[in-house]
Design goal:
The chain starts with 10 loop residues before the first helix and ends in a 16-residue tail after the last helix. The protein has a domain of 65 residues. With 93 residues, it is mainly α. It is rod-shaped and about 90 Å long. Helices cover 62% and strands 0% of the residues. It has 4 helices and no strands.
Length: 93
């Protein structure tokens, strides 16, 4: 006999919305990938009732986590420029 209890995790929604921000702030790639997996799980496990009552659609959290991955991998494609050291003072003769 199957249980009627909904086995979806409610905390995946919270995690999938805050982890991309943490990945962008820290530029940590591992947090970005975990955020992507959590948001993808939340999107795939979304029920029709959750779609009707949600303030934002679940695919927005997937897009946000993809943006976090872009931000974390951004320095690989456009490396930051090194700042020039100030010129040493020339001794006057």
């Amino acid at each position: 006999m199957a249980s009627n209890k909904d086995m979806r995790r409610a905390d995946l929604g919270t995690m999938s919305s805050t982890m991309p921000m943490a990945a962008m702030f820290t530029r940590n790639r591992m947090i970005g990938w975990v955020a992507f997996v959590f948001s993808l799980q939340g999107w795939l496990a979304e029920s029709p009732d959750q779609k009707k009552t949600a303030a934002t659609p679940a695919y927005m959290s997937v897009l946000m986590s993809l943006m976090a991955l872009v931000v974390t991998y951004f320095p690989l494609f456009l490396p930051p420029q090194a700042k020039n050291a100030p010129a040493a003072a020339m001794p006057s003769s």
